[in-house]
Amino acid sequence: MDSILRPRKRGPGEAFVLAAVHGAAYLSLFLLLGMIGYLFFKGFRELSLDFFTSVTSLLKGTVGIGGNLVNTLYIVIMALAVSVPLGVGTAVFLNEYAGPGRLNSLVGLAMDTLSGIPSVIFGLFGMVLFGEVLGLGYSLLSGALTLALAVLPLITKNTQEALRAVPDQLRASSMALGASRIQTIFQVVLPAARPGIVTAVVLGVGRAVGEAMAVNLVSGGAVNVPLPFSSVRFLTTAIVSEMGYAEGLHRQVLFTIGLVLFGFIMLVNIFLHRLLRGEEG
Description:
The chain is mainly α.
């Protein structure tokens, strides 16, 4: 009995694996804290309310990201307005109507492939299709449509996984009570899959906000008001376009923009975590 209750000694291999796992966890935490500390040290000096509400102007002597921030919010909202209905609708069709088969496999393969394509490829495709073929040019609308294509696979795949997690008993019970398939989808399946769908949308927001190369190729990069056919500049594109030659205060402002983006992504993740905990509770 004593031999059963006595803790078993770990072998060298098990001890090594355990140490490696703990080391990887602490290393990840150290890298995260180091990144936060570095961005904060480089960018916190310019953080103020005026920094968020004003625009950078040499004539007025002001430094701010008000215009870039508004442009970023506009393009994210426009991209999600296109990608969320398409992504959720595609996932519903594949999971609830198409079922297992060749079509489902082909679309799944296409989504997996699109998820792994570098963002610069989306930018080149959007520049040709939206900018030249459709005649939208370098504009906010071209950037939003290109960003919607980049976010679409992420939303579709995560929504499909959420729909697959809904028990078939719920569908069968709804149909047994006389509900049609479309009623079952909208009144039973989608509400049951809501946490997963919300997760997909929030992840899409994070991807959209952090996207740089794709929108940089199609949006033009001019500092203008966010009109659909105007060339505009966003937070991420400002960093990509200007970091190579920025010096002094200019470089410090770009680090402050990076700090703002990092803080926004952290807020999105915290919101998602709390939302999922609330759904589970």
